[in-house]
Amino acid sequence: MTTSVKGITMPTFLLHITVKPQHQGEALRTLAEIQRLSLQDEGCVDFTWLRHEDDVNKFTLFERWESQQHLDDHLAKIIPVWEEFAPCLEGDPVSQSVRAVTELA
Fold it and tell me: What is the 3-state secondary structure (H, E, C) of the chain?
């Protein structure tokens, strides 16, 4: 799914993950570093990891890119980091496409 801002269509989605409790510290460090690096990627509009207050093992990423190509380039770079981080996860990540309400009004 994509979001349109100022006439530009941008891929926008949420990614939900749950980490194993014993990997909480590693998760905080790794997700902060992924966020820092991703915000430097060309075409990154928003990239914010959020930790749920009602369950500190759950995290949600809000991510928005200028184009699908920018997102694809980012994903190609980040795959090795995710592969290394995967053992910290409880289950598979769940991706959710979202749209701005301004597109729907």
Answer: CEEEECCEEEEEEEEEEEECHHHHHHHHHHHHHHHHHHCCCCCEEEEEEEECCCCCCEEEEEEEECCHHHHHHHHHHHHHHHHHHHHHECCCCEEEECCCHHHHC
Please choose, from the candidates 89, 105, 104, 74, the residue with its C-alpha nearest in 3D space to the C-alpha of residue 20: 89
Spatial neighbors of 61 by CB under 8 A, at least 6 apart, are: 14, 15, 16, 17, 47, 48, 49, 50
Widest Cα–Cα separation across the chain: 45
Q: Looking at residue 9, what is its pLDDT?
A: 73
pLDDT in tens, 16-54: 999 999 999 999 999 999 999 999 999 999 999 999 999
CA-wise closest residue to 47 among 61, 68, 67: 61
Nearest to 96 by CA among 22, 24, 17: 17
